[in-house]
């Protein structure tokens, strides 16, 4: 009888959860992110029922009502709301970008105890520095995601690989 060997290229749990965060981020129209269970999934979007605005990335103070920044709900907010009242205290949130200061407030208020982030490309902004300060004061653990053995996942949506 031939021995069966386990897959060597399996996706570890942290990689899977970060992959779900990356895949959820693909749902965003923004051109610019319980134990071992997914309690909520979110991506950047306008509030439910709102009209989709044409994305204007101009952050100028001259026309603040004409860009997305005052309107869009971040992925963290949508993921927490998507939990539908589940007890998410003590859970881990996986995000593609380090949370902004507004999302940090939500994370802390929801009782989330750990943030795993893929990138911190805005680390030098006041918003991100305030976020890190608040998360530290609240005792929220912050870890940058480190890919394991499986660094890239290709999803074939043609059905040919099934």
UniProtKB/TrEMBL annotation:
Domain of life: Eukaryota
Annotated ranges, domain CMP/dCMP-type deaminase: 12-142
Cofactor: Zn(2+)
Gene Ontology annotations for the cellular component aspect, listed alphabetically: cytoplasm
TM ranges: none
EC nos: 3.5.4.12
Keywords on record: Hydrolase, Metal-binding, Nucleotide biosynthesis, Zinc
Active site: 76
PROSITE patterns tied to this protein: CYT_DCMP_DEAMINASES_1, CYT_DCMP_DEAMINASES_2
Gene Ontology biological process terms in this record: nucleotide biosynthetic process; pyrimidine nucleotide metabolic process
GO molecular function, a single term: dCMP deaminase activity
InterPro entries for the chain: APOBEC/CMP_deaminase_Zn-bd (IPR016192), CMP_dCMP_dom (IPR002125), Cytidine_deaminase-like (IPR016193), dCMP_deaminase (IPR016473), dCMP_deaminase-rel (IPR015517), Deoxycytidylate_deaminase_dom (IPR035105)
Binding locations of Zn(2+): 74, 100, 103
Family: Belongs to the cytidine and deoxycytidylate deaminase family.
Name the record gives this protein: dCMP deaminase
Species whose genome carries this gene: Xyrichtys novacula
